[in-house]
Amino acid sequence: MNGSNSSVSFLQLAAAFACGIALTLFLLKPGAPGRSATDPHPTGEATEERQLWTCAMHPHILEDDPGLCPICNMNLTPVQGSDAAPVDRSTPREVELAPPLVQAMNVRTTTVTRQDLSHPIRTVGSLDYDQERMVTVTTKYSGWIEKVYVNYVGESVRRGQPLFEIYSPELVQTEQELLSALRFAAAMQDAPTDARERAESLVESARVRLSYWDVSPQQIAELEATGEVFRTLTVAAPRAGLVMKRLPGLEGMAVRPGLELFHLADLSSLWLSAELFEDQVAWVQPGAEARVELSYFPGESFLGTVRFLEPALSETTRTARALIEIPNPDGRLRKGMYATVSLDPTRVADAIAVPLSAVLRTGRRDVVVIARGEGRFEPRTVVLGHQAGEWIEIRSGLAAGEEIVTSAQFLIDSESTLREAVDRMLEQRQSEAPPTPTTGRTNHQAHQPGS
Predict the structure, then answer these.
(1) Alpha helices (H) in 74-192, listed in sequence order
(2) Confidence check: pLDDT of 41 > 80
(3) Which of 191, 249, 333, 451 meets the CB 3.0–4.6 Å disulfide criterion with 195?
(4) Measuring CA to CA, how many Å separate 319 from each of 119, 339, 345?
(5) Could you report the per-residue pLDDT of 196-222, keeping only the tens digit for each?
(6) Residue 441 placed within a domain
(7) Whole-number average pLDDT of the chain
(8) What whole-number distance in Å separates Cα of residue 140 and Cα of residue 255?
(9) Strands 162-167 and 134-137, sheet pairing
(10) Which domain holds residue 270?
């Protein structure tokens, strides 16, 4: 029984809208009553103003006499005449619906709230070396490599571990200069201050020259303590990592300044290169947190931080590359591994947001229907912002705490538009009517009941 009543209510609603549209088109066309192209006067007596009556629920109902609505049996109300104040068109028309009609239309509402809008992003990427943790081992002097301690690419080395020994005549000469300067400074201890300071400056100059050639302070101290020149100098790893490159045939090779002998990469941190589509780029900023999952480690996830975002999109893929730094203290992650990246960045904090289903998009304007209670509704134009999933930001037009409609708002907005069209039509009909003679209006008023 309830299903039957619901079906009838929906059929009545559809019929009401169809009749209203047909009536509006009929009254606005040139041949409609009161709008005759040949008769300059409206239909009816010229000596009186025609009063029409309508239904608040069904504005397409127009009667000459008061009574009941033939559809819902509600009392008819007088239509605004030409002598009344003009209707304010600056705000949307408020609609009042009876409770049975609201129930039949399945109107649902929600409260406007403030919340942070985030946009979940899921993409893929591959691991690569951290460019900030890669180092090249080279020399700043010429010489010959006499012994190599690390021979394999991919071998792990620690900071300070010996890599090779090199003989360089320039180094040997500078070592001898340092030792000679030390002996001269010792002999000048009892000399005048100026002479003693010059001797000490020679010692300091020799030390600085060795430090410029990457000789460590420990090696310089050992040289000064022993007083013996080292024929070869041991070059150690400047940081821990893996040997990613090694020049082949190093032992016995003559090297020159700037020649890349070893290439080391620190794997305590890796970079994940992920691709973001152009509609996702606006949501991601450096410093955003990312969650990384790899099929090699099921059930585990790694946290990373977005370090860099490319400023330009690829012309072929329409994507931008994001570099995500991932800590790798145990060394389980390796270069070349594929990973799934999940980001949940917050684009707008504390924004006025509504469900996407609550917004009517007409092409020219965006409308949200306000529920004022007791069956009263108001379509209101709003300005939209960022969309995050099923929520969308409202930049202007709404305030937190207002009640809005999330379903059937199209029918309510159509009802408001239809009533506004009828009001405009009636105003136009009244404005085109000829002026009523004063005497005629007086006589008419004299015959009104109760006058």
Answers:
(1) 99-104, 169-187
(2) no
(3) 191
(4) 17, 17, 18
(5) 888 889 999 999 999 988 888 898 999
(6) yes
(7) 77
(8) 10
(9) unpaired
(10) 121-131+266-344
pLDDT at 448 > cutoff 50:
no
394 and 247 in a single domain? The answer is no
Over residues 378-399, the pLDDT tens digits come to 888 888 887 877 888 888 888 8
Q: Which residue has the tokens 């207002």?
A: 402
Among the three residues 295, 319, 344, which one is the final residue of a domain in this structure? 344
Tell me which H or E stretch contains 53.
Answer: strand 53-54
- Whether 252 and 275 map to the same domain: the answer is no
pLDDT, residue 373, reads 79
Q: What is the C-alpha end-to-end distance of the chain, expressed in Å?
A: 51
Angle between helices 169-187 and 193-212 (to 10 degrees): 160
Cite the DSSP H helix spans in 157-312.
169-187, 193-212, 217-226, 278-281
Phi, psi angles (nearest 5°) of residue 172: -60, -45
The mean pLDDT value for 185-191 works out to: 85
CA distances from 117 to 107, 348, 351, 408 (A): 26, 5, 7, 25
**Does residue 330 belong to any structural domain of this protein?**
yes
Residues 13 and 82 in one domain: yes
Residues linked to residue 166 through DSSP beta bridges, in sequence order: 145, 233
Three-class DSSP category at 293: strand
Q: How far is CA 417 from CA 85, 93, 188, 193, in A?
A: 20, 7, 106, 102
Same domain, 181 and 158: yes
Across the range 61-77, mean pLDDT stands at 81
Closest CA to 63 of 73, 72, 53: 53
Largest CA distance in the chain: 140
Looking at the structure, tell me whether residues 270 and 127 fall in a common domain. Answer: yes
Pick the closest to residue 241 from 140, 146, 322, 132 (CA basis): 132
> Considering the entire predicted model, what is its pTM?
0.54
Strands 156-157 and 241-246: antiparallel
